[in-house]
């Protein structure tokens, strides 16, 4: 049986240890908190300080940067990027290849389409069709 972790050197030359999440085999950094019922697919990276709530689904190739929060039952589609300290509310759906900037906030129940960009610090809320609501 293979080992359940991998060590990767970051840009500052520090070694970070990632464990393979039991649901999906995505890589979870030491210091991140992922609920056991969440799914983190293979090829996804979850950095230190991240919190992923119950029922969340993080797709293949997603990168969740430090101190981001993913709410309950949120769905992050493959190859999306969630920036540092971003907050994704409950039941949010983030599309394929979508970029969420650092310190951005996506309100619960929002639908963010494929290939969209949410700017650093931006606050976003949408209706069930993905139309943005006035702030």
UniProtKB/TrEMBL annotation:
- Transferase: is it a keyword of this entry? yes
Specify whether Isomerase is a keyword of the entry.
no
- What is its EC class? transferase
Q: Which UniProt keywords apply?
A: Acyltransferase, Transferase
Return one GO MF term. acyltransferase activity
Per the UniProt record, which EC number(s) apply here?
Answer: 2.3.1.203
State what protein this is by name.
UDP-N-acetylbacillosamine N-acetyltransferase
User: What is this protein's gene name?
Assistant: pglD
């Amino acid at each position: 049986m293979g080992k359940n972790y991998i060590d990767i050197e970051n840009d500052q030359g520090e070694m970070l240890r990632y464990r393979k999440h039991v649901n999906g085999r995505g890589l979870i950094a030491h210091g991140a908190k992922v609920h056991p019922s969440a799914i983190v697919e293979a090829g996804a990276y979850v950095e230190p300080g991240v919190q992923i709530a119950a029922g969340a689904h993080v797709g293949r190739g997603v990168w969740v940067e430090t101190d981001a929060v993913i709410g309950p039952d949120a769905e992050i589609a493959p190859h999306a990027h969630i920036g540092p300290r971003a907050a994704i509310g409950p039941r949010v759906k983030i599309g394929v290849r979508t970029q969420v900037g650092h310190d951005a906030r996506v309100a619960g129940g929002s639908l963010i389409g494929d290939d969209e960009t949410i700017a650093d610090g931006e606050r976003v809320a949408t209706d069930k069709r993905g139309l943005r609501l006035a702030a």
